[in-house]
């Protein structure tokens, strides 16, 4: 049984409200907070507007790639539950967690088993370990069998070009599932119909 769904790359209030008010809302919603190469990037002023929304029981996640001290200071008072960190060392991750009293999702981009094993350096620091493809702003798949050796004792999240129709394949896995690109239309905007299908599917 999957642990829950994360929908990443939300950038408009209509989509955000739809997810939060759905009868089966996502457990996590991710906002691209500092990675300007991504078409899903949300600038600070719009982040403030979006995060004023009543999030109910959903966790808001700030997705950050190697954030600077200035960027971290800018978002410290926003309504985030987690920082999802890419390319941040264990020591810096530990310092960020302590300074901002925030839960941490440490993200690892995976091409081989060595990439997967990097999680061990973050044990005791990170709350969730996210295993993603190498694409960053592009959804790229990787071999999920590389994760078979991961212990049950850690909270695991998986991303990287996961499709809605892939969800049944994870029913016997204890992962959080992170989707983004597969929930978009041809123009690259989040598609309400696809999100609705996903959220209804996760209860089956």
| Total number of strands | 8
> N- to C-terminal separation?
10 Å
Derived structural class: alpha/beta
Radius of gyration: 16 Å
Question: Would you give the CATH topology?
Answer: TIM Barrel
CATH classification, class level: Alpha Beta
Number of domains: 1
Rounded mean pLDDT score = 92
Strands across the major sheet, in which order? 1-2-3-4-5-6-7-8
Largest sheet: 8 strands, parallel, barrel
Molecular shape: globular
Provide a count of the helices.
Answer: 6
- At the fourth level of CATH, the homologous superfamily is Aldolase class I
Low-confidence stretches: none
Textual characterization of the structure:
Helix 2 (44-50) links the parallel strand 2 and strand 3 (59-65). The protein has an eight-stranded parallel β-barrel. The chain is built from six helices and eight strands; from the N terminus they run βαβαβαβαβαβββα. It is an alpha/beta fold and 204 residues long. The protein has one domain (4-201): Alpha-Beta Barrel (TIM Barrel). It is 24% helix and 21% strand.
Output the keywords.
TIM Barrel, 204 residues, globular, 24% helix, alpha/beta, single chain, 6 helices, eight-stranded parallel beta barrel
Short description:
The protein is built from 6 helices and 8 strands. The chain is an alpha/beta fold. It has one domain (4-201): TIM Barrel (Alpha-Beta Barrel).
Topology at a glance:
Blueprint: E1 4-8, H1 13-20, E2 28-32, H2 44-50, E3 59-65, H3 69-75, E4 82-86, H4 90-100, E5 103-109, H5 113-117, E6 128-132, E7 156-158, E8 175-179, H6 192-201
Parallel strand pairs: 1-2, 1-8, 2-3, 3-4, 4-5, 5-6, 6-7, 7-8
């Amino acid at each position: 049984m999957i642990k829950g769904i994360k929908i990443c790359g939300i950038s408009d209030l209509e989509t955000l409200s739809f997810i939060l008010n759905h009868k089966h809302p996502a457990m996590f919603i991710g906002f691209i907070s500092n990675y300007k190469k991504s078409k899903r990037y949300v600038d600070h002023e719009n982040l403030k507007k979006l995060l004023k929304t009543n999030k109910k029981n959903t966790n808001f996640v700030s997705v950050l790639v190697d954030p600077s001290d200035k960027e971290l200071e800018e978002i410290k008072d926003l309504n985030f539950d987690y920082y999802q960190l890419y390319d941040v060392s264990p020591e810096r991750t530990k310092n960020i967690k302590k300074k901002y009293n925030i839960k941490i999702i440490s993200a690892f981009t995976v091409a081989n088993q060595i990439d997967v094993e990097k999680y061990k350096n973050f044990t005791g620091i990170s709350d969730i370990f996210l295993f993603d493809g190498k694409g960053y702003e592009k959804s790229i798949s990787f071999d999920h069998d590389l994760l078979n050796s991961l212990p049950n004792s850690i909270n695991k999240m998986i991303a990287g070009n996961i499709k809605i129709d892939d969800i049944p394949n994870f029913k016997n896995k204890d992962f959080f599932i992170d989707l983004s690109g597969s929930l978009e239309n041809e123009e690259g905007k989040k598609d309400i119909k696809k999100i609705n299908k996903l959220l209804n599917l996760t209860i089956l």
